[in-house]
Amino acid sequence: MTSTQHRSPHRLWAYAYEIVPPQPSKRLDRVRALVEGENLAALTGPGAWAGRLVLEKKVTHILIVSDTPIRKREINCKLAAELERLHADFSVTEPLVIGNPPEPILGHKPSRGNGR
Fold first, then answer.
1. How many CB atoms lie within 10 A of CB 26?
2. CB 66 within 8 A of CB 49
3. DSSP percent split of the chain into helix, strand, coil, nearest 5
4. Would 114 be classed as within a structural domain?
5. Are 96 and 55 within 8 A, CB to CB?
6. Other C-beta atoms within 10 Å of 52: how many?
7. Which domain covers residue 41, as residue numbers?
8. Is residue 46 part of a domain?
């Protein structure tokens, strides 16, 4: 199966890289650059993808939201390679569905105006 077979305009998936022990921000500059670069590329690409680096006291997270549960994109390989280069212990959570756009109700028009 290809990743396009798992894409759906109606679903978003979330997963996270969990790095323990937490890493100093400066040490993750290349990881941050990878995430930011992919965020920019996703704006003009065919699919949905967004990532965010979250630094906490007990763990560092890289949170990912995507239009597919497949975690074999090029960015995933790059992130894993960079974390391995840093000798950072990490795991990746299973993707979870986080949203479905609301389906329109047949014959129902959204209300407009001042809430009446």
1. 7
2. yes
3. 30, 25, 45
4. no
5. no
6. 14
7. 8-98
8. yes
User: 65 vs 101, which has greater pLDDT?
Assistant: 65
The Cα-based distances of 73 to 6, 51, 85 in angstroms read 13, 13, 19
Query: Which residue in this structure is represented by tokens 């105006």?
Result: 113
Question: From CA 72, how far away is CA 5, in angstroms rounded?
Answer: 14
- Which pLDDT tens digit goes with each residue over 19-71? 999 999 999 999 999 999 999 999 998 888 999 999 999 999 999 999 999 88
**CA 66 to CA 63: how far, in whole Å?**
10
Give the residue from 47, 20, 52, 24 showing the smallest Cα distance to 36: 52
113, part of any domain: no
